[in-house]
From TrEMBL:
Organism from which the protein derives: Sebaldella termitidis (strain ATCC 33386 / NCTC 11300)
Pfam families, per the entry: PTS_EIIB, PTS_EIIC
Stored SUPFAM superfamilies: Glucose permease domain IIB
Cellular compartments annotated: Cell membrane
Name of this protein: Phosphotransferase system EIIC
Membrane topology type: Multi-pass membrane protein
InterPro entries per record: Glu_permease_IIB, PTrfase_EIIB_Cys, PTS_EIIC, PTS_EIIC_1, PTS_IIB_1, PTS_Sugar-Specific_Components
Amino acid sequence: MDYKNLAKEILGDLGGTENINSFTNCMTRLRINVKNPELVNSGKLKELKGVLGVVPGEQTQIIVGVGHAQRLREAFGDVAGMSGSSEISENLDNLEEKTKEKVKSKQKSSFQKGLKHIGNIFIPLIPGFVGTGLVLAITRIWSVFDGGISANPWFALLVAVGGLLLSSLNILVGYNAGKEFGGTPVLGAIAGAMIAMPALAGQPDKPLTLFNGFIKLSPNLGGVLGVIFAAFVFAFIEKKLRKVVPASLDLLIIPVLTILAGGIVTIAIVMPVAAVIMKGVTFVLLDIMLNKGGIIGGYVLAASFLPLVMLGIHQGLTPVHIQLIQDYGYTVLFPILGMAGAGQVGSAIAILVKTKNKRLRELISSALPAGFLGIGEPLIYGVSLPLFYPFITACLGAGFGGAVLAAAKNVGSTTIGPSGLVLLAVADSNRSMVWCFVALVASYLGGFILTYLFGYNEKMLERLED
């Protein structure tokens, strides 16, 4: 891809340098904050070679795919004579298509703000989850071909590297949460470390309890949700102290009072409350939706996941995935929800078979390889969502994969992030790998058949011109 020429064309269609406030990039998009959205020619931007989709608005988002976004941002900066920044963690306010943005602007509830905070805390950690998860996948595949490799110290070292993120997860989450809530990040990290203190277990004959033995403390009680709450408490206390403590005593007094006061609140209130909330959420999702709901529950979870993504609600599930991985070594929810992208792939293939539109065929052909590897943004935001009906049939098709996994039971992944065919590498067992493959095929076929029969006709191309 000729990034410099593409950047020149994009700049022209955005209304020139004088219409640019700032720009950045995430993993798949160049994001430009424009002064006047009416000067942006979205139609021409969509036609540019290398552009997979465009999300109009005050922040115009140009989808170019993984590996291209940062290079295009650098070229755009050179052409525009401005400097941008790399924003690997996607801001949840900017993840949605134009329709979603209109809804989002009307929804400013505390619940949604909370979901935004959760996303900003966990999204920066996803590269770590993917990297360490794939390292563990390598060790598992290696051990299959060499049963005696576990005695090799270098193999043990590789296994340890794969487990680094989970072993330090509370600290990383606490650091990000402290920063997100406006406190000192390292104090947030201390809050996270406090949740996992081995000393919370007490002594074998004298366990630590609260309220006359009503609550028994233990390391990691409340899990990552407790870490988020604790970091919020620490940040709240710290900010209140800064209003009353003289600047000359800031460094001496504020950190110690924050840790002591925040620690008491965390151990006495935050950890027990977070534990109850996590148990309630996992009960609904696992016991009711999957164990009792069975195939229907699995279908509903997979089919509804992308609409949840459009609303930003999916971020609320991240602590659940992580808690399951911490407790059991795998999450059974993530593979089911990961089928959502496979339905989009099947839907896109159906459109590719039916359409005669050259531009649409090129768009789908360029986005499909990424789709098979679990990167669905180009297909979702460039094809199915603008056409609308294929998005619906893709979601319904994805449900079949979720139903397959629910029927198979106990199919898990050892990390979050990788989906599509990459999901096979992070399956928790050979059995799970086989069932994930079967479920992916079911979602591909479901999305294809429903879209081919009911989801697409050439008249829908008019939507892409809007």
